[in-house]
Write a structure and sequence with these properties.
Radius of gyration: 19 Å
Oligomer: single chain
Order of helices and strands: HHHHHHHH
């Protein structure tokens, strides 16, 4: 690619100067703040919420989770992939709701584990979409600040 081709791609970048002029400086943030990044963080928030419900003795309908169940949930978060995000997007195309799609994705993901399947209706329990979104964005901003901007 020549300098003029590179310059042309930068100046015609869709979006904003962040996508063009400053793209190289923001590369470490690209994946974190992508749609994939948002979906991944929504999944993490929903999983951590379910774990918190299980740690709350007053919510007797959600018993404490075994180490095996916790490890299974941790793997869902840690191993979340582009393929998983595409599944969420496919669900969203049917539900027309982004956070509800994450809920349905997780219900399907835990359906093979009887211990988790029995509490699947507590995914997203007592939450609004805003509860999930604002926490997902907060975690993303924190990671962006700590991992990319403060180096």
């Amino acid at each position: 690619m020549t300098v003029s081709e590179s310059s042309s791609q930068t100046i015609t970048a869709r979006g904003s100067p962040l996508d063009g002029r400053y793209a190289s400086r923001l590369a470490p943030l690209k994946d974190l703040f992508s749609e994939f990044g948002l979906i991944k963080h929504r999944v993490e928030i929903e999983v951590r919420w379910l774990e918190q419900l299980a740690r709350t003795p007053q919510i007797q309908e959600v018993p404490p989770l075994t180490d095996d169940a916790c490890a299974f949930l941790d793997h869902i978060v840690a191993d979340f992939s582009v393929t998983d995000a595409e599944q969420v997007k496919a669900i969203e195309s049917r539900t027309n709701h982004d956070v509800k799609a994450v809920e349905y994705f997780l219900k399907e993901a835990i359906s093979s584990k009887p211990e988790l399947q029995q509490i699947s209706e507590f995914i997203h329990f007592a939450c609004t979409s805003e509860d999930i979104n604002n926490l997902a964005y907060a975690v993303m901003l924190d990671k962006g600040r700590n991992n990319a901007l403060c180096r």
